[in-house]
Write a structure and sequence with these properties.
The protein has helices at residues 3-19, 33-45, 55-64, 91-100, 124-129, 133-173; strands at residues 22-27, 49-53, 81-85, 107-113, 116-119. It is α+β, with helices and mostly antiparallel strands and 174 residues long. It folds into two domains: 3-130, Ribosomal protein L10, N-terminal RNA-binding domain (Alpha-Beta Plaits, 2-Layer Sandwich); 132-174. Strands 2-3-1-4-5 form a five-stranded antiparallel sheet. Helix 1 crosses helix 3 (55-64). The radius of gyration is 26 Å and the shape is elongated.
Length: 174
């Protein structure tokens, strides 16, 4: 790779890092070609962008992104590194968990999700169990709607009872 190609690669990688809020770093070394192709296919189907990167170029790209602090993620850039970009925070973790049922890899090196940094493979379970923004919004809306539904059903039920009592009283009077 020439200097110009490296510079363009680092610029493109820095642009990807700047525009994504969900970044996973994994170790996919020693996977067979079939396993890597399977990983790429499943990642593509889950709308996860994935590519193998050189650690030195990734570190340079991280340094170029001004509005994000990648902190300790730079320290884990050893060995083979694949980077995943996603729109849903727990999606890459769930994909890794699914693949780990059949193989020991990919291994989670670290993740950067909306300013939070997760280091180490032991974080995989927590990341997979993390709720997405859409799930959290749905739960909040459900919680907010619950009291309103109770009030409405209470009013409907009470109104029906009063109408029934009045009708019974009216029938008795006649």
């Amino acid at each position: 790779m020439t200097k110009q190609e490296k510079a363009k690669y680092v610029d493109d990688l820095a642009a990807d890092l700047a525009s994504n809020n969900i970044i996973y770093l994994t170790d996919t070394a020693e996977l067979t070609v079939e396993a890597v192709n399977n990983l790429r296919r499943k990642a593509f189907n889950a709308k996860i962008s994935m590519r193998v990167v050189k650690n030195t170029l990734l570190e340079k790209a991280m340094d170029r992104v001004e509005d994000k602090n990648f902190g300790d993620l730079k320290e884990i850039l050893k060995g083979a590194t694949s980077i995943m970009f996603a729109e849903i925070g727990n999606q890459p973790a769930k994909l890794i968990q699914e693949l780990r049922k059949k193989s020991k890899k990919p291994i989670l090196k670290g993740a950067w999700i909306d300013e939070a940094i997760y280091i180490g493979d032991h974080q995989l379970g927590a990341l997979a169990d993390m709720k997405s923004k859409e799930e959290m919004i749905g739960e909040i809306i459900g919680l907010l709607q619950s009291p309103a539904k109770n009030v409405v059903s209470g009013l409907k039920g009470a109104g029906g009872k009063i109408a029934g009592i009045l009708k019974t009283l009216e029938e008795r009077a006649q």
